[in-house]
Automatic annotation (TrEMBL):
CDD domains: BCAT_beta_family. Pfam families: Aminotran_4. Coiled coil: none annotated. SUPFAM superfamilies: D-aminoacid aminotransferase-like PLP-dependent enzymes (SSF56752). Belongs to the class-IV pyridoxal-phosphate-dependent aminotransferase family. This is Branched-chain-amino-acid aminotransferase. Keywords: Amino-acid biosynthesis, Aminotransferase, Branched-chain amino acid biosynthesis, Pyridoxal phosphate, Transferase. Pathway: Amino-acid biosynthesis; L-isoleucine biosynthesis; L-isoleucine from 2-oxobutanoate: step 4/4; Amino-acid biosynthesis; L-leucine biosynthesis; L-leucine from 3-methyl-2-oxobutanoate: step 4/4; Amino-acid biosynthesis; L-valine biosynthesis; L-valine from pyruvate: step 4/4. InterPro entries: Aminotrans_IV, Aminotrans_IV_CS, Aminotransferase-like, B_amino_transII, BCAT-like_C, BCAT-like_N, BCAT_family. Its EC number is 2.6.1.42. PROSITE patterns: AA_TRANSFER_CLASS_4 (PS00770). Its cofactor is pyridoxal 5'-phosphate.
Amino acid sequence: MTAEAPAPVHAEHGSLFTDHLVTARWTQEEGWGPARLGPLADFAMHPGMIGLHYGQVVFEGLKAHRQPGGSLAVFRPDRNALRFQRSAARLAMPEVPAEMFLDAVQTIAAADGHLVGDDPSLSLYLRPLLFASEANLMLRPAREYTFMMMAFVAGGFFGEVVEPVRVWVSRDQARAFPGGTGNVKCAANYAGAFLAQRRAEEAGCQQVVWLDALGSGRVEELGGMNLFFVRGEGPGAEVVTPELTGTLLPGVTRDSLLTLAARLGYRTGVTTITVDQWRAECAAGVITETFACGTAAVVTPVGQVHDSGSEWTIGTGAPGPVTAHLRSALLDLHQGRTSDPDGWMVPVL
């Protein structure tokens, strides 16, 4: 049914690129040209390209999953298309029409989906990108842009076995500022986080906990992922996530989990929680679990928090039952093992 697939078990996430690329070009005079499928190849670019110098670059991430009958389906691509448009608009870039975006999803998934094989732990990760490709160093929005969509075969973001991650609280750096670009997916948001990520790794942690930039200690995100907190235990547990303040990304997985958690009978909501409150509620047994979520991470438990030389454990430090329940429910939906009442899984034609 499928061609031989690359074996990603020992490869770094994001390194197993597939064979094809969809590209389209926009100019101020003509608007969007046609999107075309071609072989994956290097781009030729002028060293004065505006996107390279001034950061007019936005991207997305979404996945296609193998279904029980052997077909492929993509999870909520319409939401990524809309967020891609919002990101472009925030950086004064032309919006990629949703139809062009969704057609590109279908084209690349149909061309390279066979590389996923039959392993349910694998998926086809799609990476749309829009960048200013005009060669000009005037400090202004570009007058030419390139849209592309590529893909790679993905396994687990944190490895093949899901284990709780240890996280490090950044007290002296912030990811995003009010009125900035924290709520869109632009390239500049990520490079600025690398130094804190390095410090986290030096402390023996896998990810950075980002707090608000105003100094209140409010928890916002984990690396490039959204965070959830579980209060209580069992069917009566409450599942909450930081509210969207304009400084954190409105994740598609975040939105989906709020719906799934409510459908599974948990109380759900959005909240404001400081890092000190997080610690205190863990010590009091109120917060029993914490997990991160995202396209790459799916649902990943958080076991320990390192903050200013001290640390604490969440619950027992092991993956909690609510986290496991939500992860299983999301994976069952991705892989077609359960009903899809909202039509989130879009078949690849």
